[in-house]
Amino acid sequence: MVEEFRQPIVDRAIIAAVAKDIKIETRNGILTDESRHGVANLVLQRLESEVNFRGQRHKLKSIIQIQARNLAMALRGETRYRAFSFKW
Questions:
Q1: Which tens digit of pLDDT belongs to each residue from 8-31?
Q2: Which side of the chain, N or C, has fewer Cβ within a 10 Å radius?
Q3: For residue 49, is it within any domain?
Q4: What is the pLDDT of residue 40?
Q5: Does residue 40 lie in a domain region?
């Protein structure tokens, strides 16, 4: 389930930061504390954003919960799981 949300949440937040010239710095191949906090804030902001999902607007964090429940039902054999698909 992580993979279906990484691109629309994390990757998009990082690409937006780069496009806005927000510095993301590393030291010895690891994000600096300042950059790590900045990236975390960008991801948290992205989780609060709304997108269309199955005909309605939902926050991304709510869609993750919906999908987790759907996956649980699919694992119990109650329904088929349909992965989240995001359009840029």
A1: 999 999 999 999 998 899 999 999
A2: C
A3: yes
A4: 95
A5: yes
